[in-house]
Amino acid sequence: MNNLSMKILSFVLVLSGGLSIYSYSSRSGADFLNFEPSSRSQGLGGAASASITDITGMNINPASIAFIREPQVSYMHQATLSEFSTEYLSMGLPLAVFFPSRKSLPKKMRWLRNVRVGFSFLYFYTPSFEIVGNDSNEAQSIANVNDLFGSLALGYNLLGYRLGLAFKFINRRLVDFTTSTIAFDLGALKGFELNALRFLPYPVRYNIKVALSLTNAGPGIEFAGLSEALPLNIKTGLSYGLFGSSNHLIDFNLGTSTILNEATYLNMGFEYRVFKFFFFRTGIEFGPGQFQENSFTLGTGLRYTFRKVTYRVDYAYLPRRNNVTDNHSFSLLAQLHFLRPRKRKRVTSLGILDGSTKKKKRRKKRKKKKKEKKIEIR
Question: CB within 8 A of 11, min separation 6: which ones?
Answer without folding.
Answer: none
